[in-house]
Amino acid sequence: MSDTPENKRTVRDMFDLSGRVALVTGGAGLFGRQIVEAMAEAGARTFMASRNIQRQQTQAESFRRAGLEVGVLQYDQSSEESVDQLLRQVLDAAGKIDVLVNNSVLRPMSDWSSSAADFTKSMEVNATGLFLMVRAFGEWMAERGQGSIINVGSIQGTVGPDYTLYEGLDWGLPPDYYFHKGGLLQLTRFAASKLGPRGVRVNAVSPGGFFNDQDPRFVERYNARTFLGRMADQSDLKGAVVFLASDASAYVTGANIAVDGGYTCK
Fold it and tell me: Which residues, 6 or more positions from 8, have their beta carbon under 8 angstroms from its beta carbon?
């Protein structure tokens, strides 16, 4: 429904997350840190959750020194009971949940030769666990008629590996990552269709490679593979996730935003 003159909002208002409650899983990781920071900077009451409570507490202290209050919760995404308990913890602490960012990922496989058991372990968290998170939080949001779920994927969910980037480097490419990141996009679309009629939007962001002091040979090759000539930095995801969390994307659902410097278009 279009804004009337009485309730018309500015663009700045539309991006404002003040009064919202946001949960970011995997919030102490490379992508997670900037996503948590973005939610808090945009005004949301923000929580971060993962299995490693100590790592999160250390990161939360860093946020607090920067003037951002971030709550810390612990859960196991491979356990449906733990996922349900995480939802209850957020509701007990804040009374509601408006934004869920699914960023947790388990990386048990090292390459093509890793065991089938490692592949199975990966799916428990990255496929089944992701589904449990989307369903549990999505149903709670749907009962109240609003909410935004953002699934953090990867460019590797839409394209195959470019082995020329890794020639001469000691670098394994795990097939489970490509498998579950591809499935994440279809789960996003399915959930968007299922929950959309009840007011919940479900979208994905697919980041490209993140600069983390990799071998200079890899960095040079990767940079040449993008339109922008560089890898992602510590703020490149912020705008996309705030957009999808906020009213600025009120008519966007089932979408995947590639934040990859043009990698997947080249």
Answer: none
CA–CA gap between residue 21 and residue 78 (Å, rounded): 24
pTM above 0.70, yes or no: yes
The per-residue DSSP string of 104-166 comes to: -------STTS-HHHHHHHHIIIIIIHHHHHHHHHHHHHHTT-EEEEEE--GGGTS---GGGG
Q: How big is the CA angle at 95 (ends 90 and 97), to the nearest 5 degrees?
A: 60
For domain 11-265, the question of CATH label 1.10.10.10 is answered with no
Give dist(CA 143, CA 136) in Å, integer: 11
3 pLDDT more than 70: no
Structure confidence by residue, pLDDT tens digits, 61-113: 999 999 998 999 999 999 999 999 999 999 999 999 999 999 999 999 999 99
- pLDDT of the residue at 1: 46
Q: What is the per-residue pLDDT for 8?
A: 73
Helix (H, G, I), strand (E, B) or coil at 184: helix
**CA dihedral for 11, 69, 136, 130, sign (positive or negative):** positive
Q: What is the pLDDT of residues 196-219, one digit of tens each?
A: 999 999 999 999 999 999 999 999
Q: Domain extents for the chain?
A: 11-265
